[in-house]
Give the backbone structure.
Amino acid sequence: MPLKPEQKKQYKSIGHHLKPVLIVAENGVTEGVAAELERALADHELIKVKVNILDREERLGMINSLCTAGRADLVQVIGKMALVYRRNPQPNKQLSNIHRFA
């Protein structure tokens, strides 16, 4: 389900203060990257990902493949940083960025 504009605005304000949890290089979505993405989304729901690819089109393609692999929604892209969200039906309120900052 796509995010509503009000939700995106709220998540952008929360994501502004986050540090990148995952850094992806040109190797793409490997098993390790996919496992870490899954863990981070399950724990935090809203994460910031840094994609170290110089070409803009390749970088956007990598961000889209990350969202597809993690079954997540893209909230925002600024330069090499992407803000990604996936709802957890049973979040840990101490780890979830949504519950901690709401």
